[in-house]
């Protein structure tokens, strides 16, 4: 199983009453993250790596990965706390 990190644009996990512009921005953020992930996904390499017997740490992988800065939330969004 794989997970795709998605910039949340400051939207909290229990923030259900967000405005339509924030909904659309969050949707675009997820769609972009998924598209970028799938553009570089190599299933055969994944199978070879994870069936090799080597132990893996997602936190180590994320710590060494260069991540671009997060996009700013839409102008109607409150600043993250």
Write the layout of secondary structure elements.
Layout: H1 20-40, H2 43-50, H3 58-64
Structure description:
The chain has helices spanning 20-40, 43-50, 58-64. With 81 residues, it is an all-alpha fold. The protein has a domain at 20-53. The mean pLDDT is 79.
How much beta, percentage-wise? Answer: under 5%
Can you tell me the residue ranges where pLDDT is under 50 for at least 5 consecutive residues? Answer: none
Give the CA-based shape: elongated
End-to-end separation in angstroms reads 32 Å
Give the C-alpha Rg.
16 Å
Quick overview of this protein structure:
This protein is mainly alpha-helical.
Search tags:
single chain; 81 residues
